[in-house]
Each structure stands twice: as C-alpha cells, then as structure tokens.
Amino acid sequence: MTIEFTHESTRVSAFTDDALGTLDATGVAAAIRSGEIGVAEAAGAATARMRTVDPATRAVRWWASPGGAGPQADRDVALYGVPSAIKENTSFAGLPTTMGSIALSDKVAGKSGPVAEQFAATGVNVLASTVMPEFGLTASAEFAAREPARNPWNTDYSVGGSSSGAAALVASGALPIAHGNDGGGSIRIPAALNGLVGLKSTRGRMAGMPELRLLPINVVCEGVLTRTVRDSAHYVAEAERAVRNLALPPVGHVRGPGRRRRIGLITESVTDFGIAEECLAPVRTLAEELAASGHEIVELSMADLRLDGGFVRDFLHYWGFLTAAEVGAAAAASGRGFTPAELDPVTRSLLRGARRSAPSMPGAIRRLRAVTGNYERMFVEQGVDAMLSPTMTRTTPRIGFLDPSLPFGEFMDRTISMVGITPLNNVSGGPAISVPCGFDGAGMPLGAQFAGPAGMESALLELAYEVEELRPFARIDR
Predict the structure, then answer these.
(1) Residue 475 lies in a domain
(2) Which domain holds residue 206?
(3) Percent of the chain with pLDDT over 90
(4) Is 87 a catalytic site residue?
(5) Which reaction does it catalyse (predicted)?
(6) Which of 64, 364, 446, 458 could form a disulfide with 314 if both were Cys (CB 3.0 to 4.6 A apart)?
(7) Is 16 inside a domain boundary?
C-alpha cells in the first residue's frame, strides 16, 4: 500500500498484498464464494485501505459499524460479501443522510430506502458512506467551509462529482465497487476523471428515491462506479434480479463484446464552449480502432438531435428548480436540524435563481420533455446503434477551479465548460456509459462515452467490453 510523493503531486494507491490484492468486485466475490477469503477478512482489508487513503482523498463521509452493515442478501447473489460504500444522499439504515451538506443534522437513518435496498440486494457489504458536493449540485466535491475530496491520481486535482468519494475510493483501490447516482453526469463525470467505468442506466431501470417520482422530469439514475466492465455488468444483472422494470427490455448478464455496430461519432458539445482537443483526440483514435475491428463509424452532429437552442438555459433553470425541491425536502426531513446559514454559496445562488426563473419553468419543462422524443428519433433516422463522444468537454480541473466561493456567474461558466455532453442523457432518459480512454498531458485520466436509445444498456456494455480489450484500463498502481 503506497502513497507516492513527488515534487508536483501526491498519487494515492491502496493496492497491497492483503486479502483483496488487485481483485475487482467479481474476483472478490469469487474468492469469498470459494472460501479463499471470508467476508470479515475482506471488510477488514477494505477498511484498512480506506483509512489509509482517506486523509489524502477525503472520500469517506460516515463510517458504518465495524465490519460494515454485513451482506443483506443470500449467499448466491453475484456480489455477496464484497466491501463497498453508499453515497451520502441515500437513506441507509445506520448511516446519516447528510446530502453533502453541513447544514443538515447527522441524524442516523432508522431504515433503508428503496435505492439502498436494491444496492444491498446485490450482496455488497456497506462499510461507509461517501463524500459528495452539497446536494450533488456541482461537478466537484469542493466546499466553502471544509476540505475538498481529491483525485487519487493526483491530489492537486478534482475528483469530479457528484459521486466524488465513491470514485476516489474505487480508483485508489480501497474498494472494488461503490454506489453512485447521476442527475447530470454524476456517475460518468467522476468515472472519466478517475479512470473508471460508470454506467447511467435508462430512466426507470433502477429503483429510485420515492420523491423523484413527483418531479416533472426525473433526471436521476442510480448505479455504481467500478474498475472493470464485468463488475458493472454483474451489478446491473443482479440489481435487475432484485428490482425489475417490466416496461423495459431486460439487460441480463452481459459477458463480453457483441455484434458489429453502426456508431455515430459526436465531436460537438451542447454548449458554446466546445470540446477541448485533448478530450477529443483519444476518442477519434478509439473510433478508428473500432472501425478497424469491423464497426461502422459515421459522423453525427448535435443538430441531428434537434435540441432547442436554449437547451443549456432550460437545463439550468430546471437545475435550480431541483435545488429548491431537494433542499426543501431535506429541510423538512431534518426539521430543527436544518441550518440554512450553513449552505454553500452555490446552493444559495441556485435557490435565488430558482425563485427568479419560476415564471419560465413551464416552458423550460415543455422543451426539455421534447428532448426524449428527438433523442430516440435520432437513432432511427440516422440508423445508428450508439453514439460515441468524449465524456467531458475539458480535462480534469485542479482543485479550486470549481470553488463554490467563486462569483456565481464565473462558477457556472466554468461548470458548463466542463460538462457539455453528459446532461443530455439525464434529460432524454437514454442510457450512457463512460469508459477510460487514455490520459491528458498532465497524466490525468480521460473518458469516452457511449450513449444509446432507451433500454439498450446491453449494447453499451458490449461496446465497453470491446474498448477494455482494445486498450486495457490502467490501474493507479501500474
């Protein structure tokens, strides 16, 4: 287990010669099933790793009881006994649900919600909850009044968000798999910035937080961050066994690459900031490699998606509306434990913006709802099975780039410049997966995203397996 210091940065690796070794979640589960290691032994090794990396990454928010919550599923499930963690915005019995905020009380949840129940049904052993930006509203876990979560590849850099601590723990090797959720890219963004696999499923595929059913557009999807495609595929298959949405075709257990596909290459952002060439170049190279292996690659334009010219404005208005809904629900649940004066500046600014933009919300919602139909029609009209693009529209930012104490306009411009692709799939509801796709000039990971029509997670996982074969994913200790 090493924390490697250089004159420029700190790289944090938890990989060591213990019970977990370099195993992924599938490997840990197999070792537990065979009796090679025990559940308690795996939990102890993971806890030691987490405690080693946490001072540098600030990834852990709350610790569960020693040894974790324990597997809450039968021994025959895919991930039985695998040590893991849950995001701190998810109600899990025995852990506080603090939503990334110090404005909420740290009252422990008496019972788990449906999201946590589905997560636990896969067999994972929850050892802790993970750090996130306040209410999951931003793309970096930076705070006005406490230390940020940091990227284990280089602690001078952001770990991304909002599934921030989850990404840090999995990328560093402390855990093989961790829970996340995605409302604008919050699984895929940290996956891209930390060299991980992050799948955002079709809207309604996974169990959701009950309050989200009341929203005019549910942009949030639950999932996990992993180091291997097979772990993400295993998780989806087991989660689907626990909770199945009969309105969607089953994903099943995807085990490897599939048939040759017609893939649309996207090299444009939905914003006016465009895409940094460092993010584009490795995706173009990947497209060439996929073409050489038999896939058909065609150029697509954002115009093919028929997005309204005000998509970014409408999404930001809706983001403010979600902020008001989320803060209001959390405040009601916390009662006297809610201290609004301790909200971060970005949250307060979004709340003020929500009040100002309230008259324009009906129109914004109407236009955003139209995105789903246009998105789905594009696949039919262009005859493509999937879209390939960079996950991020700029490279990993340094800590401070998304400091919530910045002037709000500057903060939002910086955010929009980074996140110019991922929100499309939250609005459309279609699935998307981020996979590692090389490194930038500073040595920080880059991601490529495959997106598909509703219900087609299986095709995206097959493509992700193929990328993993073409260019095996780097681990932080290599």
Answers:
(1) no
(2) 25-470
(3) 94
(4) yes
(5) a monocarboxylic acid amide + H2O = a monocarboxylate + NH4(+)
(6) 364
(7) no
